[in-house]
Amino acid sequence: MKTDTHLSVIARFPLGVYIGHRPDGSLDFAPSPARLHSALLNAAAQGTRGEDGQPSAESLHALEWLEQNPPDALFQPESMIAGTTSSRFMYRKVGTLAKSKGGKYQPATEKRRVSDGVSVSSGFGYRWDSVPAEVAETIRGLLEDVSCLGETHSLAVLEVADFTPNLTRDDAAGAFTPGTQEREVAAPGRTQKLISEHNQQFKKKAPHKFSFSARPHSYIPSRESVRRVRYRSNSPRHEAVTPWAEVYFFEVDKEIPAKHYVELCSTMHKALISRNGNDVSPVITGKYLSGTKQEPANRLAIQYLPRNISRILGFDSPVLALFVPRGTSGADLQQIHAAEKIDQLWSRKLGRLRIRFTATTRFADQFWPSPEPGYKRLWKPMIPIIPETRPVRLKDETWGLADSGLLSLAYVWRDELSSTEKGQRRYIELRNQVLSRGASVSYAKTSPVRARDFVHRTHNSVPVQPYTAIFQLGSLADSQTAVMIGQSRHLGGGLLVPFDVPEKELESI
Q1: Phi-psi region of 351 (alpha: psi -120 to 50; beta: other; left: phi over 0)
Q2: Secondary structure tally for the chain: helices H, strands E
Q3: Last residue of some domain: 333, 366, 399?
């Protein structure tokens, strides 16, 4: 009697690149279990186990078992987008004819996106902990007939091999559970749905003569019988003390110029407040009841990441990122989660934009990838920073932009710093405390930009002076932590992005 066994499948890409697209045409960063199921179905029909172009009964049984049983664990290799930072298209002939404006038939062309794919350090892994022996045996045979995973030029070798997973299925996780990733898996009925669609597209009797009405057989497969499952990271997790705890991402349908980042984030902020109606949490609004002894240093921060930055994080479009402050829970967190329902934004300057919650979250202390060996991580603002205060008047020294930058860092970490002074002496005290923790600001200089584009709200007595600089955070934060500083840090301004330099060149900075 055959018993259950475990099954581990590795998908290797001999060219080192995986190429695939999502239904909306955007780049796919990992072949999902649903895509693996489709590849196995194709192998079952057209491979050595096929019967007259259709899957055998054994293959159908194995594929339908996969519909009921998504992988228990996955392996996600290190990866990065290969190629340029902008979308590219080409017009290619598709093997049919189309009538031109002059009434003549000419080879038809279609606009197709050119994708450079995703470079991967190793293969992707899929593991089932308990599989009926006959199903495992059938799947092993089907793997031999899979030649590609993703696009037809995304060559792949699928084989049974053990691996150590770094993602484990978590059926209790939700869209806002940090440290989890979403994957599409085949649901019951998926196999029969794909077979039915294929049979409609490709009739049993092949056409035997030319037809002007012929159309390409390429089509986007049905989205029916596909469901989403979440997998949590197996990486050791330490509880980091950071200003913001977790981040939620929303795709934006078009690029926004830097001068409108604050406008866009303010519009998203207003939409979230409107979605929650009355009694909106001060974690969102920043407005606390009178008499509150000490307001928290940080509240919900909203930042726009253009495509050249979002690609570093594994997105193929611009994104809005919502940063949830440390310690947020309960009703406050539920109000932030209401952002999931927002699908479009509008403002006079921006017009209408469509956004979509990606169901992707991450810890704020693991926001950026680690620097390469031999490099030191410094930071620079993505757009100019706005100081929170007027320059301090000092007797023996001049308060410069670098001092304002240090004070901005102190405001972000204010909850961890102690202060006994008041007024301008307090500014000096806070500045000195972040200096003592190894923070520094260099190459600070004003930016020749329209200041009002980069400020949200400020007091009339505070001069609006946009500037840029290079920051070292010392012991305030590690090399992967998301940090925003300055007057508009909660609404589109002051996001610090990595500026990695070789360690041997660090002394010159």
Answers
A1: left
A2: 10, 21
A3: 366
How far is it, in rounded angstroms, from Cα 499 to Cα 509?
12
Q: Are residues 14 and 77 in the same domain?
A: yes
Strand 226-233 relative to strand 301-305, pairing: unpaired
The structure tokens 């690029």 sit at 255
Q: Could you tell me which of 287, 267, 285, 304 has the C-alpha nearest to residue 484?
A: 304
Report the 10 Å Cβ neighbour count for 397: 8
Identify the domain boundary among 335, 366, 397: 366
Tokens of residue 185, six digits = 């898996």
Neighbours of 91 (CB within 10 A): 9
Helix then strand then coil, % of the chain, to nearest 5: 25, 30, 45
Does residue 480 share a domain with residue 395? yes
Q: Which of 461, 467, 473 is nearest to 486 (CA)?
A: 467
From the list 295, 243, 292, the residue with the least C-alpha distance to 434 is 243
DSSP structure class, residue 373: T
- Going by the DSSP 8-state scheme, the letter that residue 144 receives in this structure is T
Residues 265 and 324 in one domain: yes
Kindly give the confidence (pLDDT) of every residue in the chain, 509 residues in length, as a single tens digit, with 9 standing for 90 and above: 467 899 999 999 999 999 998 887 778 899 999 999 999 999 999 999 988 889 999 999 999 999 999 999 999 999 888 765 556 677 777 767 777 777 777 777 777 666 668 999 999 999 999 999 999 999 999 999 999 999 888 999 999 999 999 999 999 999 898 889 999 999 999 999 998 888 877 766 666 666 666 666 666 777 889 999 999 998 876 667 899 999 999 999 999 999 999 999 999 999 999 999 888 999 999 887 766 667 889 999 999 999 999 989 988 899 999 999 998 988 999 999 999 999 999 999 999 999 999 998 999 999 999 999 999 999 999 999 998 888 888 777 788 899 999 999 999 999 888 888 888 889 899 999 999 999 999 999 998 988 888 887 766 667 788 999 999 999 999 999 999 999 999 999 999 999 999 988 877 66
20 and 50 fall within a common domain = yes
d(CA 101, CA 117): 36
Number of Cβ atoms within 10 Å of the Cβ of 389: 18
307 and 351 together in one domain: yes
Start-to-end CA distance of the chain, whole Å, equals 71
Residues 426 and 277 in one domain: no
Within a domain: residue 379? yes
Q: What beta strand segments (E) does 192-275 contain?
A: 226-233, 244-252
Does the residue 31 lie in any domain? yes
Same domain, 341 and 295: yes
Domain holding 36, by residue range, is: 4-88+115-204+211-233
Q: Is residue 103 part of a domain?
A: no
67 & 144 share domain? yes
